Records
---
Amino acid sequence: MSRSRASRGSVAGGIGLAVAALLAVAAPAPVSAAPAGDAPSASASAVADYYAPAEGRTGEALKAALHDIISDQTKLSYSQVWGALGDTDEDPADPDNVILLYTGRSQAKSEHGGDLGDWNREHVWAKSHGDFGTGIGPGTDLHHLRPTDVRVNSIRGNKDFDNGGSSVSGAPGNYTDGDSFEPRDAVKGDVARMILYMAVRYEGGDGFADLEPNDRVGNGSAPYHGRLGVLKQWHREDPPDSFERNRNEVIYSAYQHNRNPFIDRPEWVEAIW
């Protein structure tokens, strides 16, 4: 059943300042040493120290300062992503399972692969948008890689994000049409913050395309992702929750040692865009 883009309801809620806890790491830990479950937490002052070079800035100056901060990271191989997602997206109610992004289904960590019913590694910033593939770099960046149902991942494909379309069978609350995909309400903000993280982290200076959001769909292989106005709306209506904040901590403390600033400081979305 089709819906117009204007007919989607909004999820109420404002964005409070989500200051995530930070674990100070003296030296990068090996990827195999990642803990499962909740990441350790520390003081808000440590988070403030991490972002200190960006304070007081707006617009392009803020974007550039955040790029410098979050570009200092440990990089994973694509094969290492399997195990990492088992920690970053672990079901808080069942440590043997992960929560799938689009369906919200809790599924065994071991049930990953390419068969129907499995979960696989979804590039929320579609890897064809900038043609970065699955090589080390944006293709393996945990801040936008999530476990998803194989079939739903295929339906999403490389579509941009926007409101509207027909219901996705087997994934209640998700909608799609010929050029866009709308995720369920509970993860709309997550999707927005992952896209905007990628736009700040990858600015074209490290051998990869300069990734940027724009206000259109149908971007194809261009290094753009839309729809910016809708992503900002989703960010406002679905602020960071405990699952997303914990995910940010696990990525920081155990794997990449960098953070998604729009989870920690949601107000910076409007300050840049």
Note: The two ends are 34 Å apart (CA to CA).
---
Amino acid sequence: MPTRSPWTCVLWDVDGTIVDASDGILRRLTIALEHFGKRPPTRAELVHWIGPPMYQSFQVNVGMTPEESAEAVAFYRGLNKTDGYATGAKLFPGMGELITDVAAAGIPQATASSKPEVQVVALMDHFDLSTSLTAIVGATADEKTLSAKSDIVAEALRRLAAAGVDTSRPVLVGDRHHDVEGGAERGVPVIFVRWGFSWPHESEGAQAVVDDVDQLRALLLFGEYADGVSDAAPAGAAAGVADA
């Protein structure tokens, strides 16, 4: 029986979903905030920073004006570029294999990340995942022109469609409420992963919630690549939903 999926394409958030870049983010945030006379976050407080665009986070978390935030983002991105975009980053266990298997099953994929696109490209190249993706989509460098999650999701779908992909049944996989809200604005159901940087309530509104990669695999694939999952799709997955 050929491999099947409930979805015609899969969109991926990156930070907290595919990649754990928290060590590098905390180090650079500490340097940047101390430079601007602000208190850096503790590791526990990273939940406030990872996910939303940094331009927004500098304003919300430490009270910067839009102008100050733009300056802070430029300083922070300079640190990032000097470090190397993939320095200290690691894949969450099993995610590289899952993305590779989804591609091998013939299901088109794209990133839909709030990170600047140049960084997303660097990360996907670093982890040898670029060839598994039909499109690599992230925010614009200024994190203002293209930064809202709903707009990034729309851009990912636009690029997939331009590549000839059937986008009639997309799904977004993410770990923050921004993913849930952004997907909802575009009519895209969201599978929420709990291994990222989130508060428990952030999964509200997601179509499914998973605790590990095996559960995620069962919602994305069934058949040959599902590694033991029944050839029949889970009832919720077949309809695009599962209990949250």
Note: Confidence is low (pLDDT under 50) at residues 228-244.
